[in-house]
Each structure stands twice: as structure tokens, then as C-alpha cells.
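Let us practice reading a record.
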Amino acid sequence: MNYKPIIVVAGEPYSVFLEIFFKSKKNNKFKNPIILIASHNLLIQQMKRLDFHFKINLIDEKKINFTKLDNKYINLIDVNFKFTNIFDKISNKSNSYISNCFKIALEILKKNNCKGLINGPISKKNFLKQKFLGITEFLSSKVNKNNQIAMLIYNKKLSVSPITTHLPLKEVHKYITKGKIINQVKLIKQFYINEFNKDPKIAITGLNPHCESNYKSSEEDKMIKPAIKYLIKNGYKVNGPFSADTIFMKEQSKKYDVIIGMYHDQVLTPIKTLMGFDAINITLGLPFVRISPDHGPNTAMLGKNLSKPNSLIQALKFLDK
């Protein structure tokens, strides 16, 4: 069988990602070759500190022979970065390292038929410097897909998708439009059809408490209801707007595959409460599948060997189909 590589960018060097990467490889077998893009120096030090023992296969990103890659090894593209202390604090000094990791990954994805991209957590404050709301938007700009992407927090039982991502609450209402809601539903439906041959049932929340506003006009009346009406008219399986304080109750949510919310915490707080970290963050609309495990750098746990790899395992298994 002709297997395709899974590209993994380790992300922020001062994070628990390499720990959960080691744990993901230790007890799981993956068919498709996994290529890690990270610092060889950091990898060696972290394995020694955490008592993991993997052989490393150093590879040249310009001369990769996918047929000869074996997951018994860590297939590593080394991105040079000088560490004075592997348990240092997150700062701007690792930005060029992270940028180079993504640059290599995007070149491989552009030139080769790959399963997709997984990236470890990134410190948005330091790396993005307010130029982008998140890595979702950063990657979309790199492939000229601005404003044509969507975030999906996927779990096979129930998934969620926020219309706006990492925005302050006071800014959210400015970025909700009829067109954005329609585009998000289209991306989600296409994803479910492509991946599962399934036309998903989608619930859409309102923005305001109980989908009501004391103002003369509301986002529900101006944007959300017209978008839902258009989508239903065009054959999409959508309903709403629903009040966000009741849609996640079991009797309501079990009717749907996906719940679309208007802002980040409106849907991510309940899904993490229900599913824990048994979910993966998928970016829809890119020319490749991009997944981020549903956890942050978590520097407080760095070096303690206590972090759980569930989300990364789910991400790898999703691409390894």
C-alpha cells in the first residue's frame, strides 16, 4: 500500500508537546509515516529528561523518500535552535524557530501528497504578535485562503464550530455576518461528506442571551435568522437560532452532529466540559487537513511527565485512516 506522510510541527519548544508526542508513539501503531519537524537538540534533551528511548532517523526535507520511512523511529527534520535551558519560559526568542518549522511543513505539503498537518501548541501572544487571531488565520494567510476557513472542534459524538475565534467579547458582534455563517455551514457540510459520506445536522446558536436583545435591532434578526433561512431554503440541515444555555443539554444536542456558536467560549466551554480533551481542532477550507490537539503549551506541567496524550492520539488516528 502507498502510505502518505503525516507532517507534525512540534510548535512552542517550551511546552508539553514533545512529552505527549513520545507517549503517543509508545503505545500506538500508525500505518502512515510520521515526520516530526523540531529541534534535534531539544528532542534528545527531552527524551533523556522524561526517560523515553526512541531511535531518531534524521532526514533531509529536500530528499525525502516516503517509502523508506519507518515509524519504529522518530523521523525528524532538524530545525536548529539553541537552548540554554529546555525548561525556560515562553518568549519571543523562539519565534524564528517556530516560523522555520511551519515554512518547512508548508513546502512539504505543497510539493507532496500528504495526509495532513498536525501542529503542537503555539503561544499566540508571542508568535503572532496581534497580526493574526490564531494559527488558523496564520495558516490561511500562507495559502491565500483569508476569510474562507473555519475552526471545527471535532468529536465523533458531537462537534462545535465558532463563527469568531480568538476575539475579545466586545468585538464579536462586528464580525458576525450572514455570509460568514453561510460559508461556515458549507465548509462543515463538505467536510462531513468528504470524510464520512454524511450530510450533517447542524444547530446554530444566537449571540444574545435567549436569542433576544433589548436594542431596536439584534444580530439574530439582522444576520443569524436570515442566514438560517437561506441555508434551509438551499437544502442544508440546519436549525436555530438556539439559546446557548440550553442547546448543549442532552435531549437537544443529541439531535445534531455539529453546533455552531457565535464566539469561541460559547461552544468550546461546553464541549470541553462534556468531552474533556477527547476532541481535535480541525481547520476547514485549507488545501490540506490541519489538526491541532486540543491543549495549550501548559508550561506548568513541563518536565513532570504527567500530561495525557489523548488529544494528539486522536489527531494522529484521524489522519492515519
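A brief commentary: The domain at 150-280 is CATH 3.40.718.10 (Isopropylmalate Dehydrogenase).
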